[in-house]
Amino acid sequence: MDDVIAAHMLLRLLDLTSLNEDDTEYKIDELCHKARTPYGNVAAVCVWPRFVTHAKRLLHGTDIKVATVVNFPQGEYNLNKLKKEIYQALEAGANEIDAVFPYHEFLKHNYDDCEKFAQSARELCEGKTLKIILETGEINNAKKICTATKICIDAGADFIKTSTGKTPISATPEAANAILETIAADTRNVGFKASGGIRTIDDAKKYLVLAVSIMGYKWITPTNMRIGASSLLDNLIMTIKRGY
């Protein structure tokens, strides 16, 4: 796939992310300014819950969604905490919720708790876009990743996401393949988000090409696919500007 074509495609699939401990409103100002490029807008910005209202105000009048994270990054099994965090995020105006799957419980084979968590997240999100983060670097087994993906699909998740970016192993093509193959085999149209360690167009293209091979070109829209990254945008714009 031509890099310039890929860069244009990836730009509109991007969840431009800032989830650093030292984030400030000024940094979110910069993030939201970058989200609107001469080559089109990114799909969403993803920020800590405390910055959702600020980001919403900055992006008012655009088609850019505001996403935030819950149960992040630990992935605990605590339904009361989940309820509180989702309620606060929606009150602040979040369009999309990225919730970390209780992968510690999953690895202990507590699948019933995992199902309850995913179902609760779906109900609490009240029709908003729900992305469930599997933390595939911790699960780190294709068969288990497929099982976790299926649990989340059956619970009604809108997207299955690879990683928080806060563990030693983040997104990998192998994990992405397991998720995409499980999505392709299901009757529901569920999206896919690769996130964690994706910094260059070469990194991102691996996931784009893989998704095209499994799901087809027509599937590649912001409704179905996202790339979560903080530094990728600059590389995409550089690629578009230089023309190769």
Q: Quick one: biggest sheet?
A: 8 strands, parallel, barrel
- Please give the order of strands in the largest beta sheet: 1-4-5-6-7-8-9-10
Give the structural class: alpha/beta
Number of helices: 11
| Strand segment count | 10
The share of residues in helices is 40-55%
Oligomer: single chain
Order of SSEs: HEHEEEHEHEHHEHHEHEHEH
Strand content: 15-25%
Q: Nearest-angstrom radius of gyration?
A: 17 Å
Overall average pLDDT: 98
Span of the ends, CA to CA: 11 Å
Parts with pLDDT < 50 across at least 5 consecutive residues: none
Quick one: overall form? globular
How is this structure best described in words?
The protein has 244 residues and is an alpha/beta fold. It is 48% helix and 17% strand. It has helices at 3-13, 25-34, 52-58, 79-92, 103-107, 111-124, 136-139, 142-155, 173-185, 201-215, 232-242; strands at 14-18, 36-37, 40-41, 44-47, 65-70, 96-100, 129-133, 159-161, 191-195, 225-229. The protein has an eight-stranded parallel barrel with strand order 1-4-5-6-7-8-9-10, surrounded by eight helices. A hairpin with a 2-residue loop joins strand 2 (36-37) and strand 3 (40-41). The longest helix is centred in the last third of the chain and has 15 residues, at 201-215. The chain is globular and about 50 Å long. The relative contact order is 0.15. The model has no long low-confidence stretch (mean pLDDT 98).
Descriptive keywords:
two-stranded antiparallel sheet; alpha/beta; 17% strand; 244 residues
